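Write out structure tokens for DNA-binding protein.
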Amino acid sequence: MSDTLLQSTLRELRALLLRPRLWLVFALVVGLFVLTGPFGTYERLAFPTRLGYWLVLHAVTWACALTSISFFDAALGKRLPSRMSRMLVGAAFAALPVGLAITVINFALLMRPLNLERIVENALVSLPISIAFCLLTWLSLSGSDQADPEAAPGTAEPPALDGARAASIADAPAAQAREAGTGRPDLPDRPALLDRLPANKRGTLIRLEVQDHYVLAVTSRGTDLLLMRLGDAINETGNDTGQQIHRSHWVSDAGVRKIIRQGGKNPRLAVETVDGQTLPVSRSQLAEVRARWADRMDGA
């Protein structure tokens, strides 16, 4: 397993574990099993023992399933466009380790046989349960807490914009229209990309940045992670509203504060954005950046 795949798996796993809805579903499922006592545990185990048994069993089997789901979600990101499909593959492969875990726990706590036949039997029983668990996990990802940047691992949160700066960014299109001498600003259509963001973060788009399998969208009202390719995200930014400056970065016209000349043997350019980031410009984009933002060159 490559370091990149391992890091992506850990990132997906941590993102899942930080979903409050997932823990709520876990608590409800454990509570249901404790109260109903399936597989003879109601008659055989007293309530405290039954609580401990189902808590341990679900904690271990959910850990196996979540790890498998996270691994295949990261590993198949470029092969299967549907996240649900990737998660279902992971759930199917999780049946074997889940079956093994159940067999070992039953052997340790209930003195049941520990052999290959019992492992296979528990794995077959676990397969439909893993699929159902995958669907519960998918449902727990829906809603406003999905791809929360504060919870997302491996993401460096850009500095928060103060009120005055955010307002100036939001007013940038109107200001540019006034400078052009138009009586009423001809504002561009709102980028379709903003519809993917939570309502409270749909401000003026500043920049996009690649973060593993995600795209970090930065607006004047905050940031959010989107599970998509950078090229697809750029296609949803509107008609010629910015420039891709690097294979990992796109910056909107409203998001550029100034263009910095970096000296040395091989002079380069960098873009300083209104959210305080300094981003590199690739050599293939130098001419386009100079032409597009000539008035914002450092010292111009």
